[in-house]
Amino acid sequence: MSFAEIMKATGVEINYYFVCKRKLWFFTHGINMEHNSTRVEIGKEVHEQSFSRNKKEIMIDNLICLDFIDKKLVINETKLTKSMQKATKYQILYYIYYLEKKGIEGVTGVIHYPKSKRKDTILLTDQDRKVLDKTIKSIYAIKYQTTPPPIENDKKCKKCSYYELCYC
Ligand code: SF4
Fold this sequence. Notes:
binds iron/sulfur cluster
């Protein structure tokens, strides 16, 4: 696995950590069901439509897409709803942190919600760096568990691509 692939996996892992620890365990054990999720497909389509006209962009490590907006470097992400806001926020913060470690500073993030015509700006703070360092350690601990964490039994489960696996 290349370094970019590892980083990509870690970005998804950070996201899943904040969504559901059980989902994270499935993913890190090679059980991937996102291709079954219609919501994932719709999300990708909305993102592509939103940014297809933006020509000023660069891709780093085939992983992080940076847009130039007013001479600033921005990671843009588009979401249908705010339901997984914290997970999306920390995934972007992780990419900003990753770029900072590569010597690319001053990157910010924006999460767009086209349905509600709203957007959130994401800025990396010292507190976020501490949270991310701790999160990576926790992700490793979950990865090496021999059995998955318990079912969360939450309303988000009904929209989760692993629903059948947890509740069949
Ligand atoms: S269905 Fe619920 S418990 Fe199972 S992985 Fe998804 S969010 Fe987690």
